[in-house]
Amino acid sequence: MEQGNIFKFHDDLDTDQIIASQYLLLPTIDEMKIHTFESLDKDFSTKVKEGDFIVGGENFGCGSSREQAPSVLKALGIQAIIAKSFARIFFRNAINIGLPVIICKDLPDKVTTGDTMELNLIEGKIICNGTEYICTKLAPYMQNILNQGGLIAFLNKED
Description:
- Helices cover about 30% and strands about 20% of the residues.
- A seven-stranded mixed sheet has the order 4-3-2-1-5-6-7.
- By secondary structure, the protein is α/β, with parallel strands linked by helices.
- The radius of gyration is 15 Å and the shape is globular.
């Protein structure tokens, strides 16, 4: 199980709140990532650590289809995003870049920012605050994409 701290966000969190459109003009994801969640928490990029988790409510990642939204989260070292539900294009973009996105209906209402949790991605289990939560497991082909680091790496893998 992988352990990290939680950063919790609200329902209907859109991609503009993850990375505002004016920062899409920056030339690299590394330059963009320091502006992640800037409108919600101006210090987010300095507080988050490699291996931390994002927890959201319903419809996480709604809005535009920009791939930079999950990319800046991955670049900051976010281990996985757990939410009640995801916007479809955000979900697919996250898998495509190798960032795990997990549906867990009960967890978001029971945790707060700063809580520590453990995730077993393969078994679809989370432990937080002494409680075990069962999550939706990713399909094996999606897990294979994640294991390779994203869709392009998966497609380029030589057998």
